[in-house]
Specification:
The protein contains seven helices and four strands. By secondary structure, it is mainly α. It has two domains: about 80 residues, no CATH class; about 70 residues, no CATH class. The strands form two sheets. Strands 1-2 form a two-stranded antiparallel ribbon. A hairpin with a 6-residue loop joins strand 1 and strand 2. The N and C termini lie far apart (about 60 Å).
Length: about 180
């Protein structure tokens, strides 16, 4: 944002404050107003972040544009997520919801903490090109051992791409005994 745009925001906020406090001179009225403005700004910030994620911007890119966070480096993306995330139901997982601009799926974004994109962003459509591209970038960033481990873990635990491994059984003169 340019210095001129920042000045316009300050002037607009000052005008809003004056209009909302018209006829009220007490300091407590200003406290109430400032808190209401803060809450509305947080709501607007959260929606802007969700819109940016829906358009395909990474957490890191968004954090790089938030005033005051760039100096925090790699932690800046996590700080943005923590500002806008809402508590998850049941699993105690924080998330930010947004509709994918590619597949139109409702995504429950679990933030920039790493992990495979299909785990971090459930809700994309089965054939989502954006999710496939993110997954490819994720796997390309892993070393060979991590790629192998991630592939094995996904085969065993991932229900997005099919059922888990079938349970083998023995036949011992009767019904099968399950190994696990």
């Amino acid at each position: 944002m340019s210095a001129e745009q920042e000045r316009a925001v300050r002037v607009g906020m000052d005008r809003t404050r004056r209009e909302m406090l018209a006829g009220r001179d007490d300091a407590v009225a200003r406290v109430e107003l400032e808190r209401r403005l803060e809450l509305e700004a947080r709501r607007g910030f959260g929606q802007a972040v969700a819109d940016a994620r829906a358009e395909g911007f990474t957490w890191e890119h968004i954090a790089g544009r938030v005033p005051g966070l760039a100096r925090h480096g790699a932690e800046a993306a996590e700080m943005v997520f923590e500002l806008v995330a809402v508590p998850g139901a049941g699993a105690n997982v924080d998330h930010l919801s947004w509709r994918c601009g590619n597949c139109d799926g409702m995504v429950l974004d679990r933030g920039p903490y790493g992990g495979h994109p299909t785990d971090a962003e459930p809700g994309h459509g089965d054939a989502c090109a954006r999710l496939a591209a993110e997954a490819s970038r994720y796997v390309a960033g892993l070393d060979a051992d991590d790629q192998l481990a991630a592939g094995i873990a996904r085969l065993v635990t991932d229900d997005v791409h099919g059922p888990p491994c079938a349970t083998p059984t023995f036949e011992l003169d009767g019904p099968g005994l399950e190994l696990w």
